[in-house]
Design brief:
Elements (H helix, E strand, L loop, with lengths): L10 H12 E6 L4 E6 L8 E2 L2 H13 L6 H8 L6 E2 L1 H9 L8 H7 L8 H17 L11 E5 L6 H6 L10 E2 L7 H10 L2 E4 L7 H11 L4 E5 L6 E5 L3 E6 L14 E5 L12 H13 L8 H11 L7 H9 E3 L8 E5 H12 L8 H9 L5 E4 L4 E7 L2
Length: 391
């Protein structure tokens, strides 16, 4: 058989043959990035093909006397000739059907020492929601709209626990350095990350809590522009949220408290052993396949909101309300009266002076409406609250 004369072969074909004999390429469909490794180093991991590596590969091809341009090489590397690779689907496929029947998710939750009686149940539902979010099930109406909020002094291993929630194969999908003030960066991270840790949650402004964060945490998809893209697209959201804080009075919006699960630690989290990730996610997949719920129903949401009241920020006006008024459950209490938020505020102001300020009477009214045992009715002009003066 005559050997093929390489000088007569199309340069593009020679280029592809050379590249495939020296490198393995794949297109990471999560990060929208081509990755590579040398074929001689099959044991090594794939790494992103950065600009420096591209230039080196281009020079290697041209040194072989293959008359192609850098654009020719880029056209091949960035085309759908390169196989797509889904790192999330690949990892979950390795976990499918291998659960040993032990409750590994509960074991992981038990490493978090807390007095919250429903923590294990809440954590399991949240983790199932995280895995369900990764699977990107068609027709999702809401994203994983709840985030555990771990509260303790420094040195309780909160950040270590958060980082260890992801296995080695998916650790690229964890971040705790996202600037929530950068809207575009956050929206893009929700499509490319798997777990976003809002570290030092207490440093987030109430305005950001009540607005942007409250909105994005429930999105099923994200409208964003890919890196180097020329248009905005509806991209699947993959990231779930978790948060840490060193302070207890941190939730600024009573109506948004259902978005967080405040968990105060009683002692440091036990990080002496690495979680059995394969079994944890195998269990999650098995539970989801058998119809286990990955969202919080109405009753559980009410439980979470009730539990979170202890972590709400008490503004001065609210603190003074508790000094001079009390909500009344009994409509027959003759000492009680129907007062509007403005009337209540005027009474407080008369007692403590003109220095008392509130951001708005609307926010003050929202605080009143969310207080335990508060009765409310609508009048022609405004909402009124059934309260009794004390002190």
């Amino acid at each position: 058989m005559n050997e093929r004369n390489t000088n007569t072969v199309n340069p593009i074909v020679r280029m592809i043959d050379y590249l495939n004999s020296h490198y393995a390429f794949r297109y990471n469909c999560i990060t929208s990035c081509t990755e590579y490794r040398a074929t001689a180093s099959a044991a090594e991991s794939f790494v992103p093909l950065d600009p420096r590596s591209r230039r080196r590969i281009t020079l290697e091809v041209q040194r072989e006397g293959i008359e192609v341009s850098k654009n020719d090489i880029a056209n091949y590397i960035d085309s759908d000739y390169i196989r797509s690779f889904d790192p999330i689907g690949n990892y979950l496929a390795q976990c499918e059907g291998v659960w040993d029947g032990h409750d590994h998710i509960a074991d992981l939750a038990a490493t978090v020492h807390t007095d919250a009686p429903l923590w294990k149940q809440w954590f399991k539902t949240w983790l199932l929601a995280m895995v369900s979010q990764w699977q990107n099930t068609p027709g999702r109406v809401y994203g994983n709209s709840v985030a555990p909020l771990l509260i303790s002094p420094q040195g309780f291993n909160k950040s270590t626990f958060c980082r260890r929630l992801l296995p080695e194969e998916l650790k690229w999908g964890y971040t705790d350095s996202l600037d929530l003030g950068q809207r575009r960066q956050v929206m893009l991270a929700m499509t490319q990350q798997l777990l976003i840790n809002i570290d030092e949650f207490n440093q987030i402004s109430p305005r950001l809590q009540q607005g942007f964060l409250k909105n994005i945490i429930q999105l099923p998809t994200v409208k964003a522009k890919r890196p180097y893209g020329d248009r905005q697209e509806d991209l699947p959201r993959r990231a779930s949220f978790i948060a840490t804080s060193n302070m207890t009075d941190i939730l600024a919006d009573p109506s948004g408290n259902r978005r967080f699960i405040g968990i105060e630690l009683t002692e440091p989290i036990d990080v002496s052993r690495m979680p059995n990730h394969r079994q944890i996610f195998a269990q999650a997949l098995q539970m989801l396949r058998h119809g286990e719920r990955s969202w919080f129903n109405k009753a559980e949401t009410q439980q979470i909101m009730q539990w979170n009241r202890r972590y709400e920020i008490l503004e001065p006006a609210e603190q003074y309300f508790r000094m001079f008024f009390t909500p009344v459950d009994n409509y027959d209490d003759k000492a009680a009266e129907w007062l509007s938020a403005a009337e209540i505020f005027d009474v407080i102001k008369q007692k403590v002076g003109t220095s008392l300020k509130v951001t708005s009477l609307m926010s003050f009214g929202r605080k009143l409406a969310n207080m335990d045992g508060m009765r409310r009715k609508r009048s022609e002009m405004c909402a009124k609250y059934w309260v009794k003066r004390v002190g």
